[in-house]
Amino acid sequence: IEAQEYIANVTGSSPARFEAALTWILNSNKDVGIWLKGEDLSESVTTVDKVVCLESAHPRMGLGCRLSRALLTAITTVLLFFWGLAFLWGLLILLKYRWRKLEEEEQAMYEMVKKIIAVVQDHYVDWEQDMERYPYVGILHVRDTLIPPQSRRRMKRVWDRAVEFLASNESRIQTESHRVAGEDMLVWRWTKPSYFSDSER
């Protein structure tokens, strides 16, 4: 009724013409920007006599409402931008930390390889001088010599990488299986002649 009176005051149209317009909206498949609502807002209106209100599909907002909405949109966009920037910055810090840890681990692995070579070589020299019973030394014995008990768990990955590196990249050390004290164990044997020892150290 309020809409009908408003249209009549503004345009001078008769109530019949207003009802005809509502009928045209109901029968039209076009989106004219006006929704006709009945008592139950969830159900579609099929006849003019059941229409109780009109709803605009494109509501007009006042200046204050537009400014507040634009401000809210801008703040949301800025916050999302800074959240994304913070996430990327955190990811970069994490990757740099990971790279640094990998570099430190690789350096520790090479240091361990040098120590293992020195121990196996010294053991072979001692065997040649009849100071050792066997020309080979147990791998676990070398580990226990180089790594204290409290550090073995922390150094396990470094030790495993060093053992793998020696198996695939060091021709002077040969990995063998021997029975020592009634148990089968993996051992290392120095395969280069002893007269190279002084020049290798």
Automatic annotation (TrEMBL):
Span of domain Man1/Src1-like C-terminal: 43-191
GO biological process, one term: negative regulation of BMP signaling pathway
Keywords: Membrane, Nucleus, Phosphoprotein, Transmembrane, Transmembrane helix
Gene Ontology MF terms: chromatin DNA binding
Localization annotation: Nucleus inner membrane
Residues spanning the membrane: 70-95
CC terms in the record's Gene Ontology section: nuclear inner membrane
Keyword match Transport: no
Membrane topology of the entry: Multi-pass membrane protein
InterPro entries tied to this protein: INM_ESCRT-Associated, Man1/Src1-like_C, MAN1_winged_helix_dom
A Pfam family annotated for this UniProt entry: MSC
PANTHER family according to UniProt: INNER NUCLEAR MEMBRANE PROTEIN MAN1 LEM DOMAIN CONTAINING PROTEIN (PTHR13428), LEM DOMAIN-CONTAINING PROTEIN 2 (PTHR13428:SF8)
Protein name (Swiss-Prot/TrEMBL): Man1/Src1-like C-terminal domain-containing protein
Organism: Vombatus ursinus (Common wombat)
